[in-house]
Amino acid sequence: MIEKRFLQKTEKGDIFAYILDNGKGLKAEILNLGGIVRRLEFEGIDVVLGRDNYQKYLYDDCYFGAIIGRNANVIEDSKFEIGGKRYTVSSNSNKNNNHGGKDSFSRKIWTVEEKDKAEPNLILKLFSKDGEEGFPANAYVTVTYTLTKENSLKIHYEATADADTIMNLTNHSYFNLNGHTSGDIKNHILWLDCDFFTPITKDIVPDGRILSVKGTPFDFTIPKAVGNDMNNSDEQMQFGMGYDHNFAINGRGMRKFAVLKGDKTGIKMEAYTDAPAVQLYSGNEVEDMPYGKDDTIYKNHQGLCLETQVFPNFTKYSHFPDGFLKKGKEYSTITEYKFST
């Protein structure tokens, strides 16, 4: 089932909410603004952070629930080369480009097509013109959200372009499996199928190294509480103020890469993707964020993100898996979050 609701007029256009219900315990509220997953309810518990004031999403540096593009994560110095030509994109994180720039996909009004069937889905489309935020090529982007009969939120990202460009899309949902009003996620249990991670500089930019997680606070190959090592004196933890790091996912193709479990509800989320990496972000800069849903004032670490992607800062390091999209080629990647108790 899909229900469409008008929410608010903004300078970008009318905002609508689409409520998807698979009839098996999973419901999602998705906005045409930024493709934002505003609510995700499993057995009546809303497990993602979000806002009630829709206007605030237009200036949301937390990117609650939004589609991120053209490039997820960071481009150092906001510069890169394609085919020997140098491009400069907008800087919105000191001197760096983060999550696509100042007016990125997360702040666009998307065209929406509804598919109301046993597994309801929304097809969101966006045209990103050549030069937008400094990125080359006209790009045609499609993101399909599906609620499956197995109680998963499946996200399929697709794109083409009329010239070589960058395309690296993700979703920036903050998960709290105890419910978004329940406090921090430090006692959530997390497993990651990731033997390596990419260290960062004090500016939270990967420095080119790829290191083993063994013997570090970044080892989630054996499940542990998210907060176990967050106060560790390790330099990397200090740089990120918690987890804000890219992890290389073991294997190739569609595979399970993470399991997250709420300590109070017992809700379990299994995550699958065909992407090479995932950014674990422990919500380190959400302190006293106003305008949370249900009059909630969010605190640091109230939700965590598992943002599937290629390696951030790939434009600087040729040994990183990259997010370059060639003219005439098709970009396609899938991520799926499956819920159970």
Features of the shown structure:
mainly beta; five-stranded antiparallel sheet; single chain; nine-stranded antiparallel sheet; 341 residues; 2% helix; 1 helix; 27 strands; Beta-galactosidase, Chain A, domain 5
Beta-strand proportion: 35-45%
Give the tally of β-strands: 27
- Unreliable runs, pLDDT <50, ≥5 residues? none
**How would the global form be characterised?**
globular
The CATH first-level class comes to Mainly Beta
Mean pLDDT: 95
What is the string of helix and strand elements? EEEEEEEEEEEEEEEEEEEEHEEEEEEE
Report the biggest beta sheet as strand number plus sense, adding barrel if it closes: 9 strands, antiparallel
The CATH topology comes to Beta-galactosidase, Chain A, domain 5
Helix/strand-derived category reads mainly beta
Structural description of this entry:
By secondary structure, the protein is an all-beta fold. The protein has one domain: Beta-galactosidase, Chain A, domain 5. 2% of the residues lie in helices and 39% in strands. The protein has 1 helix and 27 strands. It has one helix at residues 235-240, and strands spanning 2-10, 13-21, 26-31, 37-42, 45-46, 67-68, 74-75, 79-82, 85-88, 97-98, 111-115, 121-128, 139-147, 152-161, 165-166, 170-171, 189-192, 196-198, 211-212, 224-225, 244-248, 255-261, 268-273, 277-281, 305-309, 324-325, 331-340. Strands 11-12-13-14-27-23-22-17-20 form a 9-stranded antiparallel β-sheet, with no helix packed on it. It is globular, with a radius of gyration of 19 Å.
List the helices and strands and how they pair.
Blueprint: E1 2-10, E2 13-21, E3 26-31, E4 37-42, E5 45-46, E6 67-68, E7 74-75, E8 79-82, E9 85-88, E10 97-98, E11 111-115, E12 121-128, E13 139-147, E14 152-161, E15 165-166, E16 170-171, E17 189-192, E18 196-198, E19 211-212, E20 224-225, H1 235-240, E21 244-248, E22 255-261, E23 268-273, E24 277-281, E25 305-309, E26 324-325, E27 331-340
Antiparallel strand pairs: 1-2, 2-3, 3-4, 4-5, 6-16, 7-10, 8-9, 11-12, 12-13, 13-14, 14-27, 15-26, 17-20, 17-22, 18-19, 18-21, 21-24, 22-23, 23-27, 24-25
